[in-house]
Structures are given as C-alpha cells and as structure tokens.
Description:
It contains 12 helices and 20 strands. The chain has helices spanning 15-23, 75-87, 108-121, 133-141, 154-174, 182-196, 203-212, 244-249, 282-290, 310-320, 359-364, 390-403; strands at 3-7, 28-31, 40-44, 47-51, 64-67, 72-73, 97-100, 104-105, 200-201, 217-220, 260-266, 269-271, 304-306, 308-309, 324-328, 338-347, 350-352, 366-373, 407-411, 419-421. The chain is globular. It starts with a strand and ends with a strand. Guanosine-5'-diphosphate binds next to helix 1 and strand 3.
Amino acid sequence: xxxxxxxxxxxxxxxxxxxxxxxxxxxxxxxxxxxxxxxxxxxxxxxxxxxxxxxxxxxxxxxxxxxxxxxxxxxxxxxxxxxxxxxxxxxxxxxxxxxxxxxxxxxxxxxxxxxxxxxxxxxxxxxxxxxxxxxxxxxxxxxxxxxxxxxxxxxxxxxxxxxxxxxxxxxxxxxxxxxxxxxxxxxxxxxxxxxxxxxxxxxxxxxxxxxxxxxxxxxxxxxxxxxxxxxxxxxxxxxxxxxxxxxxxxxxxxxxxxxxxxxxxxxxxxxxxxxxxxxxxxxxxxxxxxxxxxxxxxxxxxxxxxxxxxxxxxxxxxxxxxxxxxxxxxxxxxxxxxxxxxxxxxxxxxxxxxxxxxxxxxxxxxxxxxxxxxxxxxxxxxxxxxxxxxxxxxxxxxxxxxxxxxxxxxxxxxxxxxxxxxxx
Length: 424
Ligand code: GDP
Ligand code: IMO
Ligand code: MG
C-alpha cells in the first residue's frame, strides 16, 4: 500500500504527526518537494522533534527514509539537522537516509536573494521563510541550478560553485543586496558535501524496487495544497507543487503506483505569511494564541487563524483526489460555544463555491458561514470515537459532508496516541 500524505490547507496541518502515525505500517518514507521551509513536529515518547528536510519516518528504527529529486536541499542546513537529531538519540546513517542525486541545492546566496526580494517588496512581501526556496527553484526552472550529483566529486563541485557564485552575486547586487563571499560559500558547501556524499544515490530505482518487492511507501508532503504554485493563492504561494501530483514528479514514482491519498487538515484554519484568508477570525486567533498554540515550527511566527473553510478544502480535495481526510487539532475547538464553517464566498453580491484565480478578487471575498453548536468539553483525554462529545462527532461528520470527502481520523492532542479513528 503506497500512501500519499499531504497538507490540504496552507501548511502546518499536523502532517508530521500523521506521518509518524502511519510510518509503523510502512517500509519507506519519502519527501518529494519543498526544502527546509518545512517544519514538521512529532512528539514521540514525550520528546519533541522538529523535522525540516529529513523525512519524519526517521524516528522509527528500521525504516528507509528518502529525500527525493523534487526537494531543494540546503547542504549545511541538512548537516545541522542530522547532527541535532543525532544529539536527540536518532540514528541516521547512509543505510537509513538516502538523498536523490537529482535534488537541487540551496546555496547561501539563494537565502540572500530571498531576503533581498522580500525586503524590496515592502508591505507587499510574501512573508517567505527566507530559506532561499523560491530562488533555488527559480535556478532549477532556469536550468542553471546545482544538483546533489554535482556534490559527488569535490573538484567538480568547487568549479561549479565558483561559476554559479559569480552570476549569483551579480544578481544579488542588482537587487540591492550585499554580495556574498564566494570562498565562504565554497568552504561551507564543500564541508557539508563531504558529510552528505555517502547518502547521495539515484533514489528512483530504489523507490520503484521497494514497491515492486511489495514494500509500502509513505509519501510525506510538505507545505499545503493552497501554497501550491499552480493551485494556491498565487503569488502568495511557495515555489513547488505541494499537491498530490507533485509527489510523483518529486520522487520518480508514477501515479499508477499510488494507492491512497490522505489530506491532512486542521479542524480550523491557519496560515503563516501574507495572502488571502477568507475565514480569518480574530476571536479564533486570540483564543488559540492565548493557549500558547499556533506559533510556527520553523520561524516561530504567530500563525494567522480562522474557521474551517469548506470552499478551500472542497477545491483542495478535488485537485488532490483525497480518499480521506486526517483531521488534526480538533481539541483546538474545545472552548467554543458556537463553531463556524465557511461554506461559500460572497464576491460583489455573487456566491462562489470555488475560489477565484485573481488574487484581488480572492482578497475581496466575504465568508458565508454555517454555524454548529460547540461541545465546551476537554477532548484531549478521549481515545475512541465513542468517547467524543455528540456535538463534536456531529461537527466532524458535517465537515466531511461539506468538503465532499470523509474524515478518517481525528487528532485530539499532539502525542502519538491522541489519534482517533472515526466511527459511524
Ligand atoms: P506540519 O508542518 O503539518 O507537520 O505541522 P506543524 O508541526 O508545523 O504544526 C502542527 C502543530 O500541531 C504541531 O505543534 C503539532 O505538535 C500539533 N498537533 C498536531 N496534531 C495535533 C492535535 O491533534 N492536537 C493538538 N493539540 N496539537 C496537534
Ligand atoms: P510545513 O511543511 C506553513 C509559506 C511561507 C510563505 C510561503 C512562501 O511545515 O507545512 P517559502 O519560504 O516557501 O518561499 O514561503 O509559504 N510556507 C509555509 N507555511 N508551513 C510550511 O511548511 C511552509 N513552507 C512555506 O510562510 O507564506
Ligand atoms: Mg510545519
């Protein structure tokens, strides 16, 4: 059974926890897109881990983890992450972590370009994670990027870096940024390459062989479907295809081999960074922030918060082909008297059931809400569907109906055991 797990909203839906839950039944876990803009939190045996580039499956012994060709990889960032996971007691070797030789490399200058571009946009900034993700994907599309295959041979890497640094610095200066020191970049990338080299292989045959031999591959999506460069709130998106299609191009596993697509969603909605958010709500934000929740795992920024949006999720379910939803953070709604779900958008007096393409129109949309009674009860101790309050179960069922995709599991807390399978 090969299962794809992706974020269905704007990221931070709790993918890390869902992946961790499903890893037990899998043999391989693979990331196919994004970079260290991702921050996936897993709480296991009372310890908290935040994964950025390393697949969340690494926390389970005996599982093969793969960083696929569609990922953009910051070599020094990855080394730092591996070392910090090792300090937490996680075993990482060239046997359990493979890196595709076709993944693109994020250089320090990409981060500088990301920052310079964001600064130049002023109050129109996208609010990127400033990790150089967009500029690295731009290099890939412009066919001037460095790939992990270029890290295999040190002398080849040195000259490739020298060439790329020259043009990248010219670009940075045009944007008003301070040119980066080419030697410092070369030293840092060469040092990281030495450590990563044993992990770099052609992962495409490895993944396909694992499948043909009856293994179970779990695809770990990063970001969320509404940050997809094609389907999201463009230009307030990330620079990869975060939707289900991106998992195939990002790993070299064909669509015919995918058995199940799971969309992870929060019981409400959050977003970090700028861009339209029709169901954004100050009451929801104040409540969640007051509980110390909804601060970014990568940047620590407070996340914007609002009610669940069935327009967004219905659209997301359509282009991703979700078989079921994994709802997380249901306990985040425990304190509300009334819970709202956005069921349509209103734009200049017209009702929309799908989001508009034009960002100005998306921004101008007003939410049309359906209201449901809250349960005003702590659900974090619930361990089965029967344990959940009646109004809570009614919310989960209605949520699934409105987005046209059933909810398969709900999360009532960040720990491994706080996951409940939805009953009838
Ligand atoms: P990801 O990027 O999709 O993996 O999500 P993040 O790790 O960035 O953010 C999700 C946050 O929600 C993390 O702090 C998780 O520990 C937490 N979380 C996940 N599921 C649940 C849940 O069901 N209830 C609660 N209270 N927290 C959860
Ligand atoms: P995970 O995998 C939430 C957002 C940024 C910004 C936009 C573009 O943890 O869900 P980028 O740095 O990618 O160019 O920024 O995308 N963003 C995320 N938001 N979760 C993430 O990852 C994100 N990765 C990027 O905040 O709005
Ligand atoms: Mg996250």
